[in-house]
Amino acid sequence: MHSFQTVSDIHIAPGGAARLSRYVDGLCPNKRIALITDKGVRALGLIDGGVESLRSAGYDVLIFDNVVADPPEQIVLMGAQAVRDYKAELVIGFGGGSPMDTAKVIAHLAGCDQPIETLYGVGNAKGPTLPLLLIPTTSGTGSEVTNVAIITTGKTAKKGIVANALYANRVLLDAELTFGLPASITAATGIDAMVHAIEAYTSIREKNPISDALALTALRKLRGAIVTACNEPSNIEARTDMLIGAMLAGQAFSNAPCAAVHALAYPLGGFFHVPHGLSNALVLTEVMKYNQPKADHWYGEIASDLRVGETGASLIDEMLRIKEETKVPQTLSQVNIPQDAIPMMAADAMTKDRLLMNNAREMTYDATVKIYETIL
Ligand SMILES: NC(=O)c1ccc[n+]([C@@H]2O[C@H](COP(=O)([O-])OP(=O)(O)OC[C@H]3O[C@@H](n4cnc5c(N)ncnc54)[C@H](O)[C@@H]3O)[C@@H](O)[C@H]2O)c1
Ligand SMILES: [Fe+2]
Questions:
Q1: What is the pTM of this model?
Q2: Please, are residues 204 and 361 in contact by the beta-carbon 8 Å criterion?
Q3: Kind and range of the H or E element at 347?
Q4: Ligand 2 geometric centre to CA of 314 (Å)
Q5: Whose Cα sits closest to atom 5 in ligand 1?
Q6: Which residues line ligand 1 (CB under 6 A)?
Q7: Which of 211, 255, 279, 367 has the smallest number of Cβ neighbours within 10 A?
Q8: Which domains does the chain have, with CATH numbers?
Q9: What is the spatial distance between Cα 225 and Cα 154, in angstroms, rounded to a whole number?
């Protein structure tokens, strides 16, 4: 038996963000909107056309641009208070995974009285929420279509809120917003999306035929476009394929959850602020090699679908080629992680039960240490 949920209203519209008032139709009765973003996205002017379109259509817009990468709980709480004070009836998350995750939790907190500390874990966030529109500006996390938000609590711990109440009401995919993404972020976030698809396809507990189909299509699009998107930033076809691929991979893993690659990647972000996509890229191929005894047949199916070979090893080789061609860092030392941090990171990775329980092969502390040492 399988069940599958996703966002029911998705618009693929290059240039659509500049006509934003069309995409909020029916979502905001009192015409007061809170737009959640970060200072980087704002400084690039990405929200300007959209805000102007909303204001000329008679909407009042609060811009909350205090989100930072790996959003801390305090900033989420601050945003929720600002949204309540403004009496907004629609929350728009505009940016990469960090602003979108923040917007998801803000929409929840501003829509009901649940204290934030009761939300962490699976199925704990229960409605009602404010209506939510998500507009990604990176092609990676798929957060726009997932029921997940990742928040940093305390100094280093990244915790997940996983609940169907977090699904957005509407999503707008405008590939033109991603033209300005530097090659390094395009590569790392694109590899994150590929990891979502690979982990969804090999997720042992909730693997399902709908996620499988989405994961394979996602990987075809992402593999076909990632190098071009890095080398030709304004190539609309490649950028559109990246955005659609990341979204499809998001739908896949939202229903067939991620596993050990993400579990081993999180401490790199939590302790050393290595960007999420890059953390995944760093551990990906060694975790795949570890998983091969249990997941080789699935890796082989993906490789055949991508026409890069018939075996699990050929998929691993292909991911190594992509990492090389997109020039992502290959070692922990290149991102300034010292050897003596390995035990602490491995212990932290072992706490990610939510992810490890989906892994094709049981992951152990010793195996985790070995994987980190191999990529040191
Ligand atoms: N909710 C989920 O399902 C899910 C899944 C995976 C990861 N995540 C989380 O998402 C976060 C990572 O998101 P991300 O990788 O999208 O990065 P991000 O949102 O943290 O953004 C990274 C940087 O890219 C900049 N940026 C964003 N769009 C840009 C553009 N178009 N042009 C130039 N610069 C741009 C931002 O200003 C920021 O400086 C992490 O917190 C991670 O844990 C969530
Ligand atoms: Fe991810």
A1: 0.96
A2: no
A3: helix 342-349
A4: 23
A5: 141
A6: 38, 40-41, 44, 69-70, 95-99, 101, 137-138, 140-143, 146, 148-150, 177-178, 180-181, 185, 189, 276-277
A7: 367
A8: 10-177 (3.40.50.1970), 182-374 (1.20.1090.10)
A9: 38
